[in-house]
Amino acid sequence: MSIFKDLPPAPSAPKRPVTDTRHGIVRTDDYAWLRADNWQAMFKDPSTLDPDIRSYLDAENVYMNAAMADTKELQKTLFAEMKGRIKEDDSSVPVKDGPFAYGTLYVTGGEQPHYFREARDGGERSLMLDGDKEAAGKSYFRLSGIDHSSDHSRGIWGYDNKGSEYFKLKVRDLQTGDDLSDVVENTGGGGVWAPDGKSFFYSALDENHRPSKVLHHIIGTPQSEDRLVYEEEDAGFFMGVGGSLLDDYVFIDIHDHETSEYRILSTKDLMAEPKLVAARETGIEYEISEGGEVFYILTNDGGAKDFKIMEAPVATPEKEHWREVVAHKPGTLILSHMAFARHLLWLERKDGLPQIIIRDRRTGEEHAIGFDEEAYSLGLQGAAEYDTDVIRFSYSSMTTPSQLYDYNMMTRERTLLKTQEVPSGHDPEDYVTRRVFAPGWDGVEVPITLLYRKNTVLDGSAPCLLYGYGAYGIAIPAGFNTNSLSLADRGFVYAIAHIRGGKDKGFSWYDDGKMGKKTNTFKDFIAAADYLNQQKFTSYANIIAEGGSAGGMLMGAVANMAPEKFAGVIAAVPFVDVLNTMLDDTLPLTPPEWPEWGNPIDSREDYDHIASYSPYDNVGEKPYPPILALGGLTDPRVTYWEPAKWVAKLRDKTTGDAPILLKTNMDAGHGGASGRFQRLEEIAFEYSFAIKVAGKM
User: How far apart are CA 293 and CA 621, in angstroms?
Assistant: First the structure.
């Protein structure tokens, strides 16, 4: 392509065919050698990576840098713009809990959060944890936060310095600022304090990076002596451990993508066996929130596809004692719930938009916190204390910076605590945000959220970044994103396609985009591109598609299905080798992911369906648009070899001359760079690719 001139020869990965036979079907994978045999060890020590693999990834990075060399100044400009929209010395509004209020802050030039506390009603701040100090000298460093004990004397904090998401936990004395001798390794990143502050519970990851055990650690003892509280033997289930606002219970949450099970441990008897609430039943999900003498249970049991809320006595929480308190309303999806001393509240989504509903537990009276914009995002933060009438929530839209409110559930008074500052300036009146609907292939309406400058000419000439995800029931919020302004200010239409596979239009929207209906996700995204082209918001020649992780699978699928409808594709940590990954039950996420994609090991039908769309398996001899794939060497979620194999095959098969680029971050995992400004550098790089492909440099 003319926009990519004088490139050196692209790397050519050698073919080393490996055959695999399943259900009588023989497949050959020419690039299977890029999967490190010692991946478990490599995630913990990247220096053990096979030299041949490292050499190939390095060569791809060299080629990518050559292709993007002319964007260096643009990247710097974009980075400066994005950084200029962030208040460097920012601070959260502290959250009250007992005698203190806890918060986070950033310092000018800092990459990592600092955690502080102050007296409940204000006063001098005391620094509990300096993230920049802890990260010093490390190429990657990610904090999992700090959780204080009930008596406010100690804090558990965790970090990952490889990007592999194996977190170490340490215990800090909050009076002196010193860490105790306790070091707990190979954890999921957090812990739950016992009320006396002398011990905590945590989840431990096994050698395949799965949280298989909940352990009880007593301060001052070695990790080897930690008591096993519960072990999950089914590799198909995730597991986490959490606590209640009243510190009465420890919750063990066991789930996959369609089935839940809770076990609870009373903190009055830390040595007891956890009590089963309701045994797992395939397809039945539930979540528990404590409400004093009762548990409130959010569940889809009994055909409540969009969920309902039940209650049960804490002494007898088994399913036979559940009683309905919030009925199921088809089309109104209850997303989450919280309980406080006098109120029950929940976040629901109807017609694609969220709202917060509050019920007085004594009178049953309900009211909603409502908003007027056409498309917006809500975040329900609740409170750190149980006996309160004041909760906290956040609000934003594509044009409105994030606003943080305290809300009195009794008086219904909103108090604006903070509005996101944009130091370089932002006038919402300069921009337009819209919610439009694209007709899907089967008659459904696919929502699309748009952001563009008011003076953007909508005659088909505007470039467009079309973003999509569409998996796991995750809805993409129409929230404020300072980074996207850099595209809008250059004449781009920034579009989010709320495609099936998410819960943007209720649970059925998710159900229609998973398992055997997965291709609806891809068709919806193409329908969004068709609509934007037909309505002249943009044109096929100007659409750059973007998605990451499962959204990267989407990118691979639409590139195979309709390459002519996209000017370029950005696929971040893309899950593109779906069939091989779902056939490899040693990988961290494979067994828990079978309810989302299907189990091709046991089911020929699932095998055939995944094989029909798996991007890597369906690369064909056709002219692909320019593609940028990004991976992380220590990524345990989408392993580095997925984008590496995909790029190698694309480059071998494409009949066009558009470059296929691979950028592998050799010092990071799934989330990319760990610092807040380091992450902006990566976004600036991705956007520079989009701007270059759009011919807007």
Answer: 64
Candidate list 635, 667, 674, 688, residue with the active-site label: 635
Nearest-angstrom CA–CA distance, 431 and 447? 19
Q: What is the dihedral of CA 513, 518, 524, 526, to 10 degrees?
A: 160
Alpha-carbon distance of 89 to 93, in angstroms, equals: 13
Q: Quick one: pLDDT at residue 670?
A: 60
Residues 168-210: tens digit of each pLDDT: 999 999 999 999 999 999 999 989 999 999 999 999 998 878 8
Kindly give, in sequence order, each residue whose CB lies less than 8 Å from that of residue 222, ignoring residues fewer than 6 positions away: none
List, for residues 407-465, the tens digit of each pLDDT value. Answer: 999 999 999 999 999 999 999 999 999 999 999 999 999 999 999 999 999 999 999 99
Question: In angstroms, what CA-CA distances link 272 with 63, 203, 240, 244, 269?
Answer: 59, 17, 18, 17, 6
CA dist., res. 396 & res. 378, Å (int): 7
* Cβ contacts of 580-587, under 8 Å, gap ≥ 24: 580/29, 580/32, 580/614, 580/616, 581/639, 581/642, 582/606, 582/610, 583/20, 583/22, 585/235, 586/208, 587/208, 587/639
Distance, CA of 154 to chain centre: 29
| Active-site choice (199, 549, 614, 674) | 549
Active-site annotation holds for 670: yes
- Amino acid letter at 416? L
H or E stretch including 555?
helix 550-561
Other Cβ atoms closer than 10 A to 656: 13
On whether both 389 and 456 belong to a single domain, the answer is no
**Residue where a domain terminates, one of 399, 422, 445:** 422
Amino acid at 450: L
- Stated as kind and residue range, the H or E segment containing 404 is strand 403-408
Mean pLDDT value of segment 28-52: 93
Query: What is the Cα–Cα distance from 657 to 650, expressed in whole angstroms?
Result: 11
Same domain, 649 and 592: yes
Structural domain ending residue among the three candidates 372, 400, 422: 422
635 counts as catalytic:
yes
State the residue range of the domain holding 352. 331-422
Q: What are phi and psi of 457, to 5 degrees?
A: -80, 120
Three-state SS for 141?
A: coil
Q: Does 600 share its domain with 679?
A: yes
Do 354 and 374 share a structural domain? yes
Average pLDDT, whole number, for the chain? 94
Tokens of 205: 């990851």
| 209 is an active site residue | no
Task: Assign 3-class secondary structure to 25-75.
Answer: EEEEECCHHHCCCCHHHHHHCHHHCCHHHHHHHHHHHHHHHHHCHHHHHHH
Helices (H), 182-241: none
Number of domains in the chain: 2
Catalytic residue among 212, 328, 670, 674: 670
Q: Are residues 514 and 639 in the same domain?
A: yes
Measured distance CA(459)–CA(650) in Å, rounded: 33
